[in-house]
């Protein structure tokens, strides 16, 4: 997993004298991240939460997760994300937490140690209101995106390519397809592949 690799890399490259304290902090931080569950709270302003920890926080330290909402999992070039998306019931969002957001939290923790010296979990977890602590806010941000409802259900299968659909394209006849599959079909035929109803190409 990407989060495990990032975590191990941070431990391997840390070279300061307070290595034991750093290891204890990161291991405890990792254990806590692994127990978090989405609180379904409204997403917080991550920049506002990060500013007290990292004064030179940059937006690119935590890029927007919105991009994941617009691509089929098969278009993200990650076998793991695609496999999790097939499971449905929010597994895709949990996979994004593992692949994208947890590694960034580890990087931010490491950055704060390098810039400000030894950190404590008390600083990271109690400096904010308990409902909006940093890691929880990041997880809630992940779940708070405008995901298609199907992400939290079991996905249907595209009748053209027979792969699961996370972002189905609904047509006026009631049938659904991957948008890319439907576009390819409409290049040759302007009827529904299932019922042959003429389709508008809007």
TrEMBL record:
Its EC number is 2.3.2.27. The keyword Membrane does not apply. GO terms for cellular component: cytoplasm. It is found in: Cytoplasm. It catalyses: S-ubiquitinyl-[E2 ubiquitin-conjugating enzyme]-L-cysteine + [acceptor protein]-L-lysine = [E2 ubiquitin-conjugating enzyme]-L-cysteine + N(6)-ubiquitinyl-[acceptor protein]-L-lysine. This is E3 ubiquitin-protein ligase. It comes from the Eukaryota. Residues 158-196 form the RING-type domain.
